[in-house]
């Protein structure tokens, strides 16, 4: 019964968009095959009303992302064509993990220097987000953390991450 579509919030524009994780298709406009009721039932539909249902928890997190050749967009501010394997990306993150240990400050420094996400310029800070805004594995890991706690390595369509919950 699921259409495969979900609604996400654009980090760059601050407005909702439609995304299909199966096909990797995204659109600013609602998919024509969906009725208004179907759109209202999509994961992330709270973004369409500009607010949440009141019980949606918002958290803040930072991350350190290492992309690989199978990432959704295998390029970044550092490299125009990323060719490393997922295993190599994971090994790189393990090295960073060993460097920062439990230090939030060192994590932020490493994210500034090495993260393949545009959030590197904010020390990896993604700002506040609620459920339905991030890719599911990232969301699940971030919401499971306590403030000040680091995740282990998480794999998403974007690459491999280590997450630090900050609020």
Automatic annotation (TrEMBL):
Isomerase among keywords: yes
Protein name: Peptidyl-prolyl cis-trans isomerase
Region (Disordered): 23-55
Chain segments annotated as transmembrane: none
Record domain WW: where: 1-33
Species: Suillus luteus UH-Slu-Lm8-n1
Reaction catalyzed: [protein]-peptidylproline (omega=180) = [protein]-peptidylproline (omega=0)
One GO cellular component term: nucleus
Enzyme nomenclature, EC number: 5.2.1.8
GO biological-process terms attached to the record: regulation of macromolecule metabolic process; regulation of primary metabolic process
């Amino acid at each position: 019964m699921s259409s495969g579509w979900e609604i996400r919030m654009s980090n760059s524009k601050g407005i909702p968009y439609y995304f299909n994780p199966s096909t990797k298709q995204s659109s600013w406009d609602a998919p024509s095959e969906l009725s208004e009721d179907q759109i209202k039932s999509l994961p992330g539909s709270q973004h369409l009303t500009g607010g949440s249902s009141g019980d949606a928890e918002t958290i803040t997190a930072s991350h350190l992302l290492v992309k690989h050749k199978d990432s959704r967009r295998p390029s970044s501010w550092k490299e125009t064509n990323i060719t490393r394997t997922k295993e190599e990306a994971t090994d790189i993150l393990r090295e960073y993990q060993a460097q920062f240990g439990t230090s939030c400050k060192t994590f932020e420094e490493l994210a500034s220097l090495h993260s393949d996400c545009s959030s590197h310029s904010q020390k990896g800070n993604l700002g506040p987000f609620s459920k339905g805004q991030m890719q599911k594995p990232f969301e699940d890991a971030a919401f499971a953390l306590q403030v000040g706690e680091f995740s282990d390595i998480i794999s998403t369509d974007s690459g491999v991450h280590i997450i630090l919950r900050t609020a």
